[in-house]
């Protein structure tokens, strides 16, 4: 009897070992690799995954066969040589002790679209602030583009770096595009229309989030720039834990019927704080090192309270993404926050400084599509296409595409006037909808007055009878305004000030 029990137990142990090894031995891919995906053209393409320790892995795509062995952590990776763009659906085979087939793959241009709610804002109407773009019914119905592929990284805040995310590649269709980023869709659609190649868009966006949530913790730890944010998080954690404890005690008293009366209210609710780096951990780290062309970014509203620090915070974030991706200084194009009653010009100025100081970045001006009361303006097509202008001009050889509006260059005092010069005046400076407005001028006392501004020989002359000895000019330097200086290509001027 004892021998029978022993053999039965040994049999269960061997069965458990067999099942466990079978599960571990299955070669696998992270979810960023899947049916309908787009692989980046004209670059070395990294493919990676997991397998049993020492398991041979073979990746076959087109005429390339790449072999490797899973390391002692059960990880493997191979690199496909540069691929030519193709609209022909193809299959990738990944084999180890098992075989994976990834179908309907195209090769083209892959872009990540990230940021907070204005990037998350979907094409179609949904719930709450997700009101859809202008004419969203028609826009969704027309979005049938089999060579555009969409991947949404499921929103996830993680306290530690993750190795995978939830999401799947989908072919762009009216049904699949509804919940996708409107800015990302318009960027990808315009790009596809111009370059005539497949485009893959990876959405990784989360509303109401500041840049420190998207930055790797190693960048922020022991850096005084982030002390305020990190210390605030620790305080909020203590408040949240205290609330949880108070709620637990209140629930216990309620369930036991002790000391409960109308004068014993529940504790005031406290929201669980988001740990800095949590979105890097949960929504960016899992898709690295998927080979991409570049990033488009729409964020900053949540950093307005630290507008002056945002210049370095944002620059550090960009540098850390590039470092971790190990694909060089890839293009990083972003949207300057739109005009809004609660958003300061200092934040927009920090964004301008990032564009001017960080290599291979570009900025879209959106002050002319803002809404004074709605932080989520519905005109996303203008923003998406202006982002595409940057990519076309700088990454795809469209030398005739203007990508920026007028940018303040220099000033000269001429009597009681100031003469302003600009870069990016393609086709000449122009005033849209009447005389130039939103210019302010000041003398040595730095008291600013509304100014008269006129265009003369591709420069702007600014003056005011209230300022006899002008020294400083500001343009569109308000939370919300209606600026109207453009270049000949219809792109708006960058807000600026000449006083620091």
What report would you give on this structure?
The protein is of the alpha/beta class and 500 residues long. The protein folds into three domains: 18-106, Immunoglobulin-like; 110-219 and 275-395, SGNH hydrolase (Rossmann fold); 407-497, no CATH class. It is 28% helix and 25% strand. The chain is built from eleven helices and 23 strands. The chain has helices spanning 2-25, 117-120, 136-141, 174-177, 182-195, 217-220, 227-256, 278-284, 307-325, 345-357, 381-395, and strands at 38-40, 45-50, 56-61, 64-69, 75-80, 86-95, 99-115, 145-152, 169-172, 199-205, 294-298, 332-335, 361-364, 407-414, 417-423, 430-431, 439-442, 449-450, 452-456, 459-463, 472-475, 485-486, 496-497. The strands form five sheets. Strands 1, 3, 4, 6, 7, 8, 9, 10, 11, 12 and 13 form an eleven-stranded mixed beta sheet that branches. A four-stranded antiparallel beta sheet has the order 14-15-20-19, with no helix packed on it. Helix 5 crosses helix 11 and helix 9 (307-325) packs parallel to helix 10 (345-357). The termini are far apart.
